Amino acid sequence: MKKNILTYGFVLCTFFLFAQKQTNIWYFGNKAGLDFNNIPPLVLRDGSASSFEGSSTVSDNNGKLLFYTNGQVIMNRQHLQMKNGSALSGHQSSTNNTLIVPLPGNDSIYYVFTTGAALQETHQFQYNIVNIKGDGGLGEVIAGNILIEDVIFEKLAGVRHCNKRDAWIVIHKWDSDEYHSYLLTATGFNPVPVVSRTGLVITGFENNEIGTLKFSSKGTKLAAVHSFENDVVELMDFDNTTGVLSNPVVFKPNAIPHTPSFIGVYGAEFSPNGNLLYVSANNSAIDPSVLYQFDITSHNAATILGTKQTIAKTVPWFAGALQLGPDMKIYMAMWKDTSVSVIDDPDVFGPGCNFRYNKIFIGPAGKEPVQFGLPTFIQSYFDTASVPYDFSRSGNCLDRNITFKLNRLSGIDSVKWYFGDTQQSQALQPTHNYAAPGFYDVKLIVYKVDCSGLNDTINRRIWIADSAGFLGADTSSCNVLALTIGIEEIEGANYLWNTGYNGNKIITTGFGTYWLELQQNGCKLRDSIDVIEKPKPVVNLGTDTTICKFKPVILTTGSSFYDTYLWNTGQSTPSITVDKAGTYYIDVTLNGCKASDTVVVFPGDCAIFIPSAFTPNSDGLNDMFGVLGDITVRSFSMQVFNKWGQMVFTTTDISQKWDGTYKGKKALIGTYPWIVYYVTGNGLRKYLQGTVMLIR
């Protein structure tokens, strides 16, 4: 038996199981579009191909556009014509003019099936092959307009095979009761159809071939809408293993025949659960648009008609196609409208289905963005049962008694659980008690009912916490610093901080409370941590000051309660005494927090000291006469005179001194008058005079 392994990340081998996002981008009508990667869908107006009726679009597994077509030209994701993508044999006035189907097991090759229109002389069924990796990743048509058969209706539909890999493409022969089911497998397209001769023979007026062909998303029912002269809906069972259609029932939604110039019934769509069928109709000038709902669970024509609900009517536009969306709502096009209408709750019988006329505005009046059609898809893309099996755990991450829950229970024959601690269970949703905290590798095998021969194996590593306080103790900091707080990476966990960050660790930006909530495979746990501001020391050495010779200055922090002191002089006391001008700074610490301050000691406006005697005898002691000390002045002048009034010395440099000579000769012993004029650093003008005794 082949097994399908599903690991964390949900990677599956079949293309259908992730196909929901392949339908996330729609292009239709007059260059209109919808993007279902947004909820509600985002309106797109960048399309470059128009279609009166059918179209088809395909996106990748992440919902990113790959290409789209109106049956006549293929446009790549850049909205440019794909290489070799022109002159397709489809027609934009065909109900279901085209269908894009990925080749099973291949992420590069796509088949593009096309049909002609009733207004054409030939109604051919053809296919083209696209290699999406061609032309630098923009896609390239590598085979075009390959004829499958002639003379078919302008309708086709697709659904997956029971094996979840292959795909059926179904068409209806003209002038015949034959439905042809073609199979696309990993080896390619099988040109030999499964023929089902059932139901109505449609012939006569060419417009009788108008109307949609639509599968239910589960692939068990097919609805064929036959417009104009027939004005009926044909409902059949479909065997998605053999491709055989059977058990046709035919019913006529319109109780009163439509006006001949109107087409009658046109579009159809199944509810997501497959129990209801919606049918659109255009009947007369006063009744141009009608939307019906039927309960089809009986599969009996009379009973079905007895459940008819008229959901909407007499709206001002012709009713067009109906299409189920990725959001499980049904969308309705109306010819030449500006908007798309929506059935919000299509599984609900009666008015509770919530039809919303013109709910999504597409474009302004006059542009006619909406026409008759909406994109045609493989309907299995909308089967909720195609969602991969998965499981989650209950409760808090501290809980050791854990209940495991499957995401869905349908389609299961049996299961087997391996809890990662040697224990096992075959209960659908078991409860298991773990002996200790830690990591456990849990494995679930789902044995399915379907014919695929595939069993889903899901592996999860679960975490049982040993403490709610996983962030640790509160922390403190002196300043608003970048502190890293958090938890080591936990496999499979999602993280959410109160800041909005979603990583396992965060760098703080300020003081306060930080909490982290983590989820790991269904469990939740939250912890918080306070980042507290420590009391910081404040040190102040005061304002800058001045110093004078023989008058030292005391610099002090004003506190003896700090843990440490360190001056740039190397001293480690609360106060220091300095006797020189300069810059002094201190670092203090308290509780691990540091503070600093700086003070500048300038030379002050001190009194000038001039000696009263000097002995210029070259003994190195008092040999010079002048101003003593390091004093800052703005300007300075000094003159010394002998007793006859002759100036024996003069200078404007406060540091220059008289050596006791005059005209190169030693001056006589005696008393010498002097005068000094200077301007202080603060701008004060000073004048001094006195005498000095020259002694030898």
What do these coordinates show?
The protein is an all-beta fold and 696 residues long. It folds into five domains: 18-384, 7 Propeller (Methylamine Dehydrogenase, Chain H); 387-464, Immunoglobulins (Immunoglobulin-like); 475-533, Immunoglobulin-like, CATH 2.60.40; 545-603, no CATH class; 613-694, Immunoglobulin-like (Sandwich), CATH 2.60.40. It has two helices and 54 strands. Strands 1-35-34-31-32 form a five-stranded mixed sheet, with no helix packed on it. Strands 12, 13, 14, 15 and 16 form a five-stranded antiparallel sheet that branches. The longest helix is centred in the middle third of the chain and has 6 residues, at 301-306. It is elongated and about 150 Å long. The termini are far apart. Residues 1-19 have low confidence and may be disordered.
Mean pLDDT: 89
CATH superfamily of the largest domain: YVTN repeat-like/Quinoprotein amine dehydrogenase
* CATH architectural group of the largest domain: 7 Propeller
Count of folded domains: 5
| Overall geometry | elongated
* Largest β sheet strand count, sense and barrel closure: 5 strands, mixed
Q: What is the tally of beta strands?
A: 54
CATH-defined fold name of the largest domain: Methylamine Dehydrogenase, Chain H
CATH class of the largest domain: Mainly Beta
Major β-sheet strand ordering: 1-35-34-31-32
Number of helical stretches of at least 4 residues: 2
* End-to-end CA span: 126 Å
Poorly predicted spans:
1-19
Give Rg in angstroms: 47 Å
Strand content: over 45%
Structural classification: mainly beta
Helix content: under 10%
